Amino acid sequence: MTGSITIEDIYQELKTIERKMVTREDLEALIDSVEILSNPKTMEALRKSDLDIKKGRIKEVSSVEELLSEL
Question: pTM to 2 decimals?
Answer without folding.
Answer: 0.57
